[in-house]
Design goal:
2 domains, alpha/beta, Nucleotidyltransferase, domain 5, 5-stranded mixed sheet, 19% strand, 9 helices, 335 residues, 10 strands
């Protein structure tokens, strides 16, 4: 079976070809122009997808050495995400499937992130625990089998990636905030500032990063920080390292405790924040200390990408699941 996967839920336009359990191509364009606006502008994102979708799909097919007539199904994200962006990939995917008279498969974006660790070998064994951390979501999911998910906890306010972006904006260090903080934190002291760790109630699998973000804001106000005039690189590095340490502590604590509680052997992480070097370093240490097998996707599969959509579509088709062409875009689609 040959599956074309399409991802346009936010600001990455991506397409991939997955055949018989093997990834043949993954073509992605990131809309870098959003950095000048300090964040993703939905209307501009959807317009960019309109311009990019055909060339990206063509690139994916060419890189895979596959003609469109050889495709057995088209998979595209139908939510969650920015509705204008979702509609571009979803509409294109449905139209292509209709034109080729092949099945169409709607994919939940959060499910696709879980599949980022199921694209290539080695793969986690069921059941496993997956932590998805991105700009819009933070979720802890027990994956019992293909398409059998138990959502153990998620953010009740700001997602981890959202908190990174907002703190970066407070410091005036640019967008995307996650990569900027990760870079600067390497030169800072993670113990310089005692930011709180929002663990919530004992045993809770829920996440909350709004209060932590606000703590950084109040701290900067207290010391009279002015991002337009301060150029103390050591101070900014210390803030980045201290904030990042607080986020990583919470993410790892909840993941490890949940893995122990549910007696899983394999744990995985996915989403844009899974590219964070400190999170990856700490996860490896904690997994080894607690005898868990850890799975972290390649950096190209951390951010939104067509490969994870194609892999999810492949397994859905293999298990006999397809979607109606009347499927709609759902910006708040639940896992």
């Amino acid at each position: 079976m040959t599956i074309l996967g399409i991802e346009t839920s936010c600001d990455e336009t991506s397409a991939a070809v997955y055949k018989d359990g093997r990834l043949l191509s993954n073509a992605t364009v990131v809309q870098l122009f959003h950095s000048q606006h300090g964040g993703v502008v939905p209307e501009l994102a959807s317009r960019a997808h309109l311009k990019l979708i055909i060339p990206i799909v063509d690139d994916a097919l060419k890189d895979a050495g596959v003609e469109k007539e050889s495709i057995d199904a088209v998979a595209a994200v139908n939510g969650p995400g920015l509705i204008g962006s979702i509609l571009v990939g979803l509409s294109f995917g449905k139209a292509m499937a209709m034109g080729l008279e092949i099945p169409f498969i709607g994919i939940n974006h959060m499910e696709a992130h879980i599949f980022s660790n199921l694209i290539n070998e080695p793969k986690p064994s069921f059941p496993f625990l997956n932590l998805t951390v991105s700009g819009g979501h933070t979720q802890l999911v027990l994956v019992r089998n293909y398409f059998q998910y138990e959502l153990l906890g998620e953010t009740i306010d700001d997602a981890a990636g959202e908190a990174f972006d907002k703190v970066a904006k407070m410091l005036g260090i640019g967008y995307p905030g996650g990569s900027q903080i990760d870079k600067l934190a390497k030169e800072g002291n993670p113990k310089a500032i005692a930011f709180p760790r929002p663990y919530l109630a004992e045993g809770s699998h829920q996440f909350s990063f709004s209060g932590l973000k606000t703590s950084v804001l109040y701290y900067l106000r207290k010391i009279g920080f002015d991002k337009t005039s301060v150029n103390d690189s050591r101070f900014i590095a210390d803030v980045c390292a201290s904030f990042q340490a607080a986020v990583v502590d919470v993410l790892i604590d909840k993941l490890i405790k949940a893995a122990v509680k549910y007696k899983v052997k394999d744990i995985s992480v996915s989403g844009g924040v899974s590219a964070n070097s400190e999170l990856r370093r700490r996860l490896k240490l904690e997994a080894k200390a607690n005898n868990f097998d850890l799975f972290i996707p390649e950096l190209s599969f951390c951010t939104d990408n067509g490969a994870m959509v194609a892999a999810a579509g492949y397994e859905r088709l293999r298990h006999g699941f397809t979607s109606s062409l009347e499927i709609t875009a759902e910006p708040n689609l639940q896992l």
